[in-house]
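note to self: dont lose this again. the chain is below, predicted strucutre after it. 819 aa total, dont forget to put it in the shared folder this time
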Amino acid sequence: MTIRAGGHADTGYAPGGHDEMLDGHGAVRGAWSPLAGELGRAGPAGLAARDAHTRRLLAEDGVGYRPPGVDDEQPWALDPVPLLLAADEWSGLERAVAQRAELLDRLLADLYGPRLTLRTGLLPVEVVLGHEGFVRGWARGPGAPPRRELFLAGVDLARTADGWRVFGDRVQAPSGAGYAMAGRRVVARVLAPVHRRSRIRRLRPFLDAVRRGLEELGAGVDAPRVVLLSPGPQSETAFEQAFLSAQLGFPLVLGSELMVREGRVWQRTLGRPEPVDVILRRVDAAWCDPLDLRAGSQLGVPGLLEAARRGAVTVVNGLGSGVAENPGLLPYLPALARALLDEPLALPAARTWWCGDPAGLSHVLARLPDLVVKPIARGDDRHSVAGADLTAAERAELAARITAEPHAWTGQEVLVPSTAPAIGPGGHLAAQPVTLRAFAAAEGGRFHVLAGGLALAGDRAKDVWVLDPGTRTTPRRPDGPHAPAGTLSPRVASDLFWLGRYAERAEGTARLLRAVADRRADFQTTPEPGGRQALDVLLRATTAVTLTAPGFLGEGAVGRLAAAGPELLSLLTDRDRPGSLAYAVHRLTGSAQAVREQLSVDTWFVLGRLETVLGELAASKAPDVSGAPDVSGALSRVLEGLLAMAGLAAESHVRDAGWCLLDAGRRVERAIGVAALVAATLCDRTRPAADALVLESVLISAESVITYRRLPRTGVAAAVDLLLTDRTNPRSVAHQVERLRADVAGVPGPEAGVGAALEAVERRLAGGPPPVHRGPAGTRAELRALVVGLGHDLGWFAEVLERGRFAPGVPPRPFGTVA
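---
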C-alpha cells in the first residue's frame, strides 16, 4: 500500500465526499503528507499492529468508559490515526469557538439577570422558560454579586462542503477534554516517529488555563479550595473525572462529602471540615441539590443552590447553564451575537427550525423525512431521531407529538460531515465521517480553546493534531497556590484502606493457592500417606482461610478432596465467588477505580495484567486445574503484578494520610491472613510424616521459609514465633501491629476507640512465646485460641478504625474475609 504525498492515493481508500486527507482530485493535502507517508509505508499489517498497540496501551493506562447500564468499565475506543488541522484553518476556528463561548456566557448572564433578550423579543419566552434546564431559583436578585455562568464550554462541530458547522452545544457539564489528553499520550507512542517530526500544538496549556481560571473564581481568598464534584466511580466518564482531578491537583469529591453550614459549603475531611470556594461540577444541575432541585437526589448537596446563588461558593458551570444546550436557541444566535457582542456570529450552526414558531412548525412537519428532529431538552421519552430512519407510521406519530407540544421540538438539517481515514478490519484504511468537539475555558478575562479537541469517527475517538509551523514555546505554568493540604475525604480514606486490604488479600490468596498447587503436583497420585495427608490439610486450610465453605470442609468434603481440581479452579477464576483470587483482584480493581486520582498511572498497567492472566485461565474452559494451562506459572505472574503494585505504593506514594491508610489496609489484612493460616494448619491433629510438609508449605505461603531456615533452631515453636511474635519478620503479626501503630498515628481524626482496639491485639501478643504443645486430644488448643483471638481482635480494630475515621454510612464492602 502506498500513499503518495502530493499525488493520488492508490490504496483503496476511497472517500465519497469531502475528505480531510484527500482533496477533490484524490491528492494528499499538504498538511497530511508526513502522516500519509507513514500510513502508506506501514501497510495493512503495520496498521493492524498499530491498532492492536493502541488497544493495549489504553488498557494498560486504564483509560475506560462505562456505557449506561453496563456494570464494568469498558476500554476506551481510540483510532490511532489522528485528525490533522493546519495552523491557518485552526486559528479561525479557535477564534470562532472562543466567541461562541463568550456569547453563551453573556446570554446566560442576561437570562438569569435583567432578561433583556426576552423583554425585547430577541428570544421567544417559551424557548427559554419551557426548557427543563432553566432553573428559576438561579436568577440573581438586585444587589447579588456578579458570577460567571459559563466556565467550560463544549461545541460539537462537523466540517461540511460549506465549512465548519455547529450541531450542538455542551455547557451543562461538558466531557471529553480529559479523554483527548489521554488519547494524545497513547497516539504519541503509537506514531512516535511522525509525532516527533511534526510540530503539534500541545494540550497541557489548556489544563493550566483551566487551573488558573478556577483559582480566579475564588477571588478574595489567598488559597481558594477548589473541588471537582463527581457523580461517583460508577458514572460513565469516571476515568476522565479522576484524570482531570489528578492533572489539575484538585480533589475529586462526591455530593455526600460536601455539606452546607452557616450559608457556605464545607468539605468533610479526616480532620476538621474545610471551607470550599469553587466547585467544578460533573453532576447535572438537576441532581445537584435535593432541596431545591430534584428531590431525593443522592448525588447532590442539600442547600447548594442557595449557597451558590448568594455567592458563598462559586459553582461552574452555573446551575442554570443547561438551558444553553437548547437547540431551539440556534436560529436566534446570529441576532443575539449582534446584540450582546456587537459583532457577527463567526461559527454558523446547522440550519435549525424551532417548532414553537408557526413558520418553523410548518416547515418541520412538511420535511420530516429530510430532517433530524431534536427535543429542546433531552429526556427519557424524548430524544433525537432522524426522520429518514422512521417508517411512515412512526413519522405520523412523531408529527402528532410535535403538533401537541410544538415548543418542545426542533428540526435540524442533516449534516454530511467530512470523512477522515481510520483503521478498519484487516488494517485497511476506511473513510469514516468525523465530527469534532472543541473546548473553551475562561481564564484571564477571555476564553482559551483546547488546541484540537476530541474527534469522533464512527464508534471511536481520534486524537486531533493542530499543526503549528511556528517556534515551540514553553507554556506558562499555573501561578496560583495549590489546594490546601489535608483534603483527604473520609470516602477516599475508606477506599484507600480497602484498596490495601484487597491487594493483600489477593497476594495472600495467590501465595496459598500456589503452595497448594505445587503440593498437589507432588502428592496427588503418590502412595505416600504423609504427602496425601499434608495435601488434605492444605486443601482444607484453603477453604478455611478464604472463607469459601463448603469447599473442602463439611458434608461431601471427602469427595471434593479426592477430586480437588474443579474447586481449585473455581478459587482461581470465579470472579463472582467471594474469597476467590479472581474476586479479590476484581474488587482490587474496583477500589483502585474509586480512587484513580490518587494512584500512579503505572497502577493500571499492573491491574490490567492481573485481569488478563486470570481471564485467560477462565477462558481456557478447563474442567479443573489439571486441564488448565500452567496454573503455577499463572499464579506466579499474578504475584509478580501484585508485588509490582506493592512496590509502586512503597516507592511512588507520598507518605501522607492516604498512604498510611493504604498501608494500614495491607497490614491488618496480612495479620488476619497469617493468623487464619496458622489456625487452619498447625493446630489440628496430624501424622508426624505430614507435619514437616505442612509446616514448610505454611512458611512458603507466608513468605518466611528462607528466614526460617536461617534460624538457630527450627520446629513448630520456632516457626510459630517467627510468624506471630517476631517483630523483625516483615510477615509476622507482631510486625504488622507495629506498623499499624505508626499508620494510625499518621491519620487525622477522632481517636474513637482505635487505640484501645489496637492495644487489645498488642496485649494478646505480649504473653510470651506462643504455646505449641499438644493437648490430650493431639491438638494445639491454646495456640488455636491465641490465633483465633488475634483474628477477632484485628477484625474489631479494622471495624473501629472505619467507624471512627471514615464517613458515616460508608456501605459495607463485599469481602468475605473478616475473621
